[in-house]
C-alpha cells in the first residue's frame, strides 16, 4: 500500500470544500425561491411589473419547473459525467447559472422568469448537483484500499473490477481508482 503524500489530504480537503460549495449554492437557490415568490406576489398587485395580475399558481410554476428539471435531468447529467469529466459538467452548470440570472434580469413578463429561473436554472441545478453529489461520495469514504458496499460488507476494489461493475462512480476511495476503472 502506498503511503499518502502530504499533498493528498489537502487535495481531498479542497475537493470536499468545492463539493460543499456547489451543494450549498445549488440547494440554496432552489430552497430560497420562497423569498423570490413572496416578492413576486407583492408585485402582482403593483402596476407595471412583469407579475401584474398573475396568479399564485403561475408564480409557483417557476419554482416547480426548476425542481422538476433538477430531479428528472439527473440521468442525463450522470451520462454526460461518464462521457466527459464530472468537473466539466459542473463547470458547465456554473456557466448556465450565470446565463440564467443575467437573462432573468431582463425579464419583462412572467414567462421570461419561468424560462430563466425555472427551466434554465433547473438545468443548471441538475448539471451541478447530481455529478457533485455522486462524485463527492468517493472522497467522503475513509482513505483505504477497500470499499464498503451499501449493505455494509467489505470487499476489495479488485473484486469489484473483476465483477465487471459498470457504474459511472465507484465506492472505492479516490486514490485507489485508476484510469482503467473509469467507464467511458
Task: Describe what this molecule looks like in 3D.
The structure is a single chain. The chain is mainly α and about 180 residues long. It has two domains: about 5-140; about 145-180, no CATH class. Helices cover about 65% and strands about 5% of the residues. The protein is built from seven helices and two strands, in the order ααααααββα. A two-stranded antiparallel ribbon has the order 1-2. A hairpin with a 5-residue loop joins β1 and β2 (about 155). The longest helix has about 30 residues, at about 110-140. It starts with 6 loop residues before the first helix and ends in a 22-residue tail after the last helix. The relative contact order is 0.13. Residues about 140-155 and about 165-180 have low confidence and may be disordered.
Amino acid at each position: 500500500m502506498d503511503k499518502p503524500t502530504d499533498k493528498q489530504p489537502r487535495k481531498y480537503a479542497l475537493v470536499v470544500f468545492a463539493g460543499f460549495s456547489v451543494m450549498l449554492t445549488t440547494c440554496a437557490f432552489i430552497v430560497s425561491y420562497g423569498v423570490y415568490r413572496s416578492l413576486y406576489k407583492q408585485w402582482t398587485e403593483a402596476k407595471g411589473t412583469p407579475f401584474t395580475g398573475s396568479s399564485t399558481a403561475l408564480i409557483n410554476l417557476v419554482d416547480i419547473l426548476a425542481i422538476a428539471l433538477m430531479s428528472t435531468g439527473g440521468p442525463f447529467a450522470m451520462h454526460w459525467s461518464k462521457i466527459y469529466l464530472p468537473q466539466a459538467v459542473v463547470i458547465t452548470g456554473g456557466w448556465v447559472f450565470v446565463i440564467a440570472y443575467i437573462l432573468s434580469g431582463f425579464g419583462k413578463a412572467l414567462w421570461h422568469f419561468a424560462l430563466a429561473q425555472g427551466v434554465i436554472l433547473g438545468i443548471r441545478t441538475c448539471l451541478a448537483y447530481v455529478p457533485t453529489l455522486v462524485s463527492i461520495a468517493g472522497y467522503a469514504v475513509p482513505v483505504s484500499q477497500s470499499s464498503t458496499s451499501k449493505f455494509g460488507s467489505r470487499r476489495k476494489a479488485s473484486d469489484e473490477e473483476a465483477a465487471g461493475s459498470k457504474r459511472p462512480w465507484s465506492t472505492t476511495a479516490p486514490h485507489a481508482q485508476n484510469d482503467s476503472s473509469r467507464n467511458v
